[in-house]
Amino acid sequence: MREITYSQAINEAIREEMRRDSDIVLLGQDIGVYGGTFGVYRGLCEEFGEDRVRDGPLSEAATAGFGIGLAVAGMRAIVEIEFMDFSPLILDAVANQASKMRYFFGGKVKVPLVLRMPSASKLGLGAQHSQSLESWFMHTPGLLIAMPATPYDAKGLLKTALRQDNPVIFIEHVRLYATKGEVPEEEYSLPFGSARIVREGSDITVVAIAMMVQEAIEAADELEKEGISVEIIDPRTLAPLDGETIVESVKKTGRLLVTHEAYRTAGVGAEIGQVAQEGAFDYLVAPIRRVAGKHQPIPSGPLQDEVFPDRDKLAVAIRDLMEEG
Amino acid sequence: MTEQAQSAATVSSDQALAWFRQMVHIRKFEEKVVELSGRGLVSGSTHPCIAQEAVSVGCISAMSAEDLVLATYRGHGAFLARGGDPKAAMAEILCRETGCCKGKGGSMHLCDPDIGFLGTNAIVAAHIPIASGVALANQLKKTDRVTLCLFGDGASCEGAFYETLNMVALWKIPVVLVCENNGYAISVPTKKSLSVPEIATRARGFDMPGISIDGNDIVEVYETTRQAVERAREGGGPTLIECRTVRWERHSALSAGFYESREERKRWQVVDPIPRFRTTLTEEMSISASVLEEIEQEAGEAADEAAEFAIRSPFTGTAQLEQDIFA
């Protein structure tokens, strides 16, 4: 099968859907001929024109509001937020408007809106350009949330996001954009709420999100040599969350470790751990562990490595867990 | 002749009576809501638009049937002025299953897309970019529909307002932004919250027209909005209209009414748009008082009927609880 990058996969999904659906409009900053901050939209403005690939001012809050308005009026907007760190600027539009409007209007409107935003890490960009803030959105009812870790998942999930009528938070990762993976040329889409078992194993379940999927694979390769069999699950979407796949895996292995780059405190790992405990308490032979971002502002420079999880920290935690129970 | 009577001279008596009827219907409806709130029948709080009827009726009557309207939590008047069903509105305010939003929105969330009313919003200024996005959709689809967005003086202090002014002016979006300046936040008067005496002057910084008018003069509200709508429809872009008005008593049914000094009350009585327009109708347009009394009586009965309908309707049941979260 051909291989393309994560960035190309997203570009392809949008290009194909824009060809199919003339109601799709892109809003954001530097998205026109420049192609988006990370080049994800390269070539789209040339193909679809400035009306549909609409460069706008640095006004994230209003841009998100415009996206909702387009959606309510029967179109479909994709709003790009340059870094997920800027998503606090659109929180009202997401948490009070897009996610609740259909409900408080008794089903009289639909809000087909995709908010794309990349998280970042380890780029030396410091406290305001290195965060993963998915738990803020997961805390809000009325949203769908995707956080793909591979080009294949990115394209398939984005296709689904663009063919349904609810607000979607689509979280990409800056360090994944250049990674390559197999993506079929033929049409496909992936359902939300269906986790991927990245690797089967029998001793411990590792639920890994976004960048941490690859780190988990590398840790598992190393641990395999020591006779530890790691099962890795990528939830792919946080809302809905495929709790069933996680619970079934924990019933099999008896151990769970959740890993993400986002801050550990009240992070998605806390929710996933609780779901597993409620569903598989009697099967657990060791406490549920988290290997996540340190709960503090992220420094710039080499010091940043201290706050982010990586395969080495994962391997240490997994070995520890294997000694318990 | 007063200035108002002069402008009214261009208005037909049918149009004038329709305005009077709508304003009185809204007044009676809101008085009924306040009464029901006092009886504990309204869920949570409610934000009456009493004394601001000329704004919603005046500007919405300048829109065509295909145009679109968005308003705020103080938006019962806008909903009714757009032709919303008073029974469905009252039932919504009382959280009954017959409400226009199935009783799940409540007083602050009325909506009826079938009449081009895309809802009232309870986060100050949040709907200004949303309304402008609706207008952008119509611009892109090359319809000639114009979107009207009503908001209060407080919204003009929010960031979403300024971001949106820049974008609608830049893109010549067919939206008419109507600011109902009633002079107060919950308690803070605009002289303590605004750096300028007139909100309309905010438009200048964005190179778009801004005009400040007497929001309790329905003829002026109508005429100003009509021109702005025409301009937007012809591709001339947005207009900011500030309607100076007053608010009755309190911010909401749950707020304290401490600012209601005798002077304030007196001022409200002087500028109340309904008796003021009544005088225009009887003195300048020779409409008989009995016709107006009949309208007032009808309006009172309609409000009673809406209340009875709502009270008779069952509360929205648990079958609805988890409906309409996702499409």
Could you explain how this protein is built, in words?
- With about 325 residues, chain A is an alpha/beta fold.
- Chain A has helices spanning about 5-20, 45-50, 60-70, 90-100, 100-105, 135-140, 150-160, 210-225, 245-255, 270-280, 310-325; strands spanning about 5, 25-30, 55, 75-80, 115-120, 145, 170-175, 180, 195-200, 205-210, 230-235, 235-240, 255-265, 290-295.
- In chain A, helix 3 packs parallel to helix 4 (about 90-100).
- Chain B has about 325 residues and is an alpha/beta fold.
- Chain B has 11 helices and 6 strands.
- In chain B, strand 3, helix 7 (about 160-170) and strand 4 (about 175-180) form a beta-alpha-beta unit.
- The interface of A and B includes residues 64, 105, 106, 141 and 144 of A.
Radius of gyration of chain B: 19 Å
Largest interface: A-B, 44 and 44 residues
The strand line-up of the biggest sheet of chain B is 2-1-3-4-6-5
Q: Bin the strand percentage of chain B.
A: 5-15%
Q: What's the tally of helices of chain A?
A: 11
In percent, how helical is the residue content of chain A?
25-40%
